[in-house]
Amino acid sequence: MKIFRIRRFIQVLATLFQNGYTGFLSTGNLYTGALKRFCAPGLNCYSCPAALFSCPLGSIQQIMISVKLLPWSYLGKVFLYLLGYLLLMSLFLGRFICGWLCPFGLLQELLYKIPFYKRNFNLPYRAQRYLKHLLLIFFVLLFPALFIKEIGYGILWFCKYVCPAGTLEAGYLNLLIQPALVQKIGLVFAWKSLLLILILMFCLMEMRFFCKNLCPLGLIYGIFNKFSLFRLSWIKNQCTGCTICEKVCPMQLTIPKELNSVECIRCLNCLEVCPTKAIHLEKSLQFLPERHQIDFAVEGVRDAKRRKSL
C-alpha cells in the first residue's frame, strides 16, 4: 500500500501548492502576481481566488480568441511558450499529471469513496471516450477562434459553458467571498451549476468519470503516453492472470493492452498490487515496439496456462 499513500500525499500537496494564495481572504481579489504567467500542470481554474497559476486549457483558449486581434509578433511568443510547456509536460510525465498532480482528479477520487450506488457508464462502442475529443476540437480550439464578438475577441467556450473545476473553484468560491455577485447570476451560471451537479453525481458512481469521458487536458497529455519518459511495461512470463491489476485500475483499462494508452493515468495501482511484479515502470523517451502492447487481457494469460496444464 506504499504507492497508494505516497500518491495521495503528493495529490494533496500539489493541490495546496497550486491553490496556495490566501490573500483573497482579506482582499477578496484574485492573485495576479508573477506566477500567474505560468500554467498549472492539472485542471485548476485561473479565476479561483486561491489559484497561483493559470490553467493550460484556459491559456489555449486565450490564444484562440485573440488570433484575429493581437499581432502575431506578440501572440507567437505566447503560443511557443504554451506549446513548449505542454510538450515538456507531456513528454516527461504524460498522464502522470492526471494521476498525481491534478486537483480535480483528487476531488473525483475522494468523491468515489463516499458510499453510494456504483456502476460504470458505457455507451455503445465505448463512444463516451470520444466526448473529450469533441470538447478539445470544438470547445477549446475551434469555437473560441471562429465565433468572435464585436470587440474582436471570442469566448472561452470550454471555461464558460463546460468546465466543472471553474464552476466549483471560481464560481462558488467567488460567490462566498463576494456575495454581491449573486445579483449577476444568469442562465449560463445556472447551466454550469446543473452540469457540475451531474458530473459530481456521476463521479460518485464511477471512478474518475470526468477524466474518462470529458477532460480535454487529460487527452492532450494522454496522446504522449507512449512516448513519455515514464511508461509501464508488462512481462508475460511473470503474469499469473489473476486480474487483480484490472480490478484496481480506476480507468477500467484492459491490461496489458492499454497500459500506456491515452486513458492510462499512471496511478501505478496495477504495479502496486501485482503479486508477481509482472508490471514495471520504465524510464525512456525512446519509442520502441513495446512489450506491453498485447492483443489480449490478463485473463487470456490465465486461460492459456490452464489449457497448457491439461
TrEMBL record:
Gene3D superfamilies, A to Z: 3.30.70.20
Tree of life domain: Bacteria
Any Pfam family hit: Fer4_9
GO cellular component: plasma membrane
InterPro entries in alphabetical order: 4Fe4S_Fe-S-bd, 4Fe4S_Fe_S_CS, Electron_Trans/Redox
Record keyword S-adenosyl-L-methionine present: no
Domain 4Fe-4S ferredoxin-type per the UniProt entry, residue ranges: 230-252, 255-284
The keyword Cell membrane is annotated on this UniProt entry: no
SUPFAM superfamilies: 4Fe-4S ferredoxins
Membrane-spanning ranges: 78-106, 130-148, 185-204
A molecular function (GO) term: 4 iron, 4 sulfur cluster binding
UniProt keyword annotations, A-Z: 4Fe-4S, Electron transport, Iron, Iron-sulfur, Membrane, Metal-binding, Transmembrane, Transmembrane helix, Transport
Protein name as it appears in the record: 4Fe-4S ferredoxin
